[in-house]
Amino acid sequence: MDPVVDDLAAQQAELESVLDGLSAAQWGVPTRCAGWDVADVVLHLAQSDELALGSVTGRLADVALGLAGGEGPAGTVDEGADALVTRQRGAAPAELVGRWASGAARLVEALAAMDLSTRVPWVTGALTTRLAETWIHAGDVADAVGVELPPTDRLRQIARLAWRTLPYAFGSAGRDMSGPVAFRLVGPDGSPWELVPDEPPLTTVRGPAAELCAVAARRTPASATTLHGEGPDVDAVLELVRTYA
Fold first, then answer.
1. Domain end position, chosen among 112, 145, 178
2. Tens digits of per-residue pLDDT, 122-143?
3. 197-245, pLDDT tens digit by residue?
């Protein structure tokens, strides 16, 4: 399999190991996703994996319509996700885990079998976006129930996604980049991770990859990290960097 597909499968397995240890009460613990408990987060992941599978199999519109119960699209991505969770919440934990695990496995199978250069109707970097979202929400669940998940080399792909989509992040905020940006990061094992543009960078961000990914996931403010850098866009990069639309 492609290394990113392997990473997605490994990230799913890490989340499954956390879910397997939950008590009935822990499924109702609030998470750092406003208004969502642990069950809601897992439901959201199940729904978004189903949408991703619909995308790569050419059935995105049908899957989206089915999840929404025929209702029209919401105003924003966040509003749409919340509406889907609100509509389908309430399943028993065993049913919810079964739904998520089945959809996650089918998504990995579909991705492993396809040409990953194929364009699909989804967001930029569809595969890596699934990896990033699964990592983010695994962290949300683990944080809620007091489990520590150590950073892994899977963060390399997530950091690269955050770096590659900086133009999108700036454009979505109505801002302009002064020029190319480099990330010179330190991986969990202490090795250097260099994300460098073809042209000489005007801005360079430095620090631990785990911190950069947490900032891009909007789970940690940049001010609470050791991230730093030089160049005209350092503050803007740390404000706008993201791993999702």
1. 145
2. 543 478 899 999 999 999 999 9
3. 999 999 999 999 999 999 999 999 999 999 999 999 999 999 999 987 5
R_g of the chain computed on alpha carbons: 18
Distances (CA, A) of 165 to 33, 34, 112, 172, 202: 23, 25, 24, 11, 17
pTM listed for this prediction: 0.92
Task: Give a yes or no: residue 245 inside a domain.
Answer: no
Task: Report d(CA 55, CA 60) in Å as an integer.
Answer: 4
pLDDT tens profile 81-120: 899 999 999 999 999 999 999 999 999 999 888 765 655 5
Q: How far is CA 232 from CA 43, 65, 180, 201, in A?
A: 41, 44, 11, 11
For residue 95, give the H/E element and its range: helix 93-113
Residues 92 and 203 both lie in one domain = no
The rounded distance, in Å, linking the Cα atoms of 32 and 54 is 28
Tokens standing for residue 141: 């669940």
The answer to whether position 179 is within a domain reads yes
Distance (Å, whole) CA 27 – CA 153: 28
Strands 181-186 and 192-195: antiparallel
